[in-house]
Amino acid sequence: MVRGLLLLAAFAATLVQAQGGLPKGMLQAKPQSWETETTQAGGHGSASYQFVGTLRCKSLGDAIVGVRTLRSEVVDLIQVGCARIECTDDLSCSWQQLDRGAYAGMPNDKSQPAIAVCPHDSVVSGYRARLRLAGGGPVDYVGELQFECARVIAAAIGAGDGKPDGGLPVSDSQRSWLPLPPAEGGAPATPGDAPWQVEARCAQRAATGVSVAIGTYKPTGHPVIQALSLFCTRAPQAAGAINVE
């Protein structure tokens, strides 16, 4: 319980900033040369966004270990939580201190917060989403999210000698879904047996960023998370991202 309260406080500290408005940013988000991108959730039927950018950890060497969302009918705001991974000589890797990271989106008076954090030996390496159609047309938004944690199996492979960043190695078999719990009084969740229309994960490596696009939710006119994907370090002998049909 104490750990949960501390994490809540760490994430909540930027909420006041978020209510002040979404800062102008890149109008385009592309993976780095050493990254690849997973399948995108949402964003179909919309030709323009208010903001497109990538949520990354502030400190080089940190990894995404948690996610905070604010959600009403759809996901209104998303923020990443980051931590430095330390590994011992016997390749036992873990993180201790979570720090709030970048966010995108705008809460409204119906937004309810939810926080999900990986175990201390794991980092975010996948996601799945349920989409919501709204506005009387083929325009979809990110309605619900879950993130997948993968156990870290070795220290990060740093860039050197002109070679691309090797990323943070994770297990492809020791993974678990990290549901974002519904907040008390929040919007009703989709029934548990409803299909996840999009599911994707990074292969052999941790996620390096969350790519998001902010669009206007037609029923209310509020800015929301309309599209989302993950950036991943390219794994050796692999495309770097596994998309689950």
What can you tell me about this protein's structure?
The chain has 245 residues and is mostly beta strands. The chain has helices at residues 2-12, 15-19, and strands spanning 35-37, 41-42, 51-55, 62-71, 75-84, 86-87, 93-94, 99-105, 112-117, 122-133, 140-152, 170-179, 198-202, 207-217, 222-233, 241-243. Strands 1, 2, 3, 14 and 15 form a 5-stranded antiparallel sheet that branches. Strands 12-11-10-13-16 form a 5-stranded antiparallel sheet, with no helix packed on it. A 4-stranded antiparallel sheet has the order 8-5-4-9, covered by helices on one side. Mean pLDDT is 81; it is low at 1-6 and 13-27.
Question: Which properties best describe this structure?
Answer:
16 strands, disordered N terminus, single chain, 245 residues, five-stranded antiparallel beta sheet, 7% helix, mainly beta
Condensed summary:
The chain has 245 residues and is mainly β.
How do the strands and helices of this protein lay out in sequence?
Blueprint: H1 2-12, H2 15-19, E1 35-37, E2 41-42, E3 51-55, E4 62-71, E5 75-84, E6 86-87, E7 93-94, E8 99-105, E9 112-117, E10 122-133, E11 140-152, E12 170-179, E13 198-202, E14 207-217, E15 222-233, E16 241-243
Antiparallel strand pairs: 1-15, 2-15, 3-14, 4-5, 4-9, 5-8, 6-7, 10-11, 10-13, 11-12, 13-16, 14-15
Tally of separate helices:
2
String of helices and strands: HHEEEEEEEEEEEEEEEE
Question: Radius of gyration over alpha carbons?
Answer: 17 Å
Judged by helices, strands and strand pairing, the structural class is mainly beta
Shape: elongated
Q: What is the overall pLDDT average?
A: 81
The proportion of residues forming helix, as a percent range, comes to under 10%
State the end-to-end CA separation: 37 Å
**Largest sheet, if any?**
5 strands, antiparallel
Q: Give the DSSP E fraction (strand runs of 2 or more residues).
A: over 45%
- How many extended strands? 16
Low-confidence stretches: 1-6, 13-27
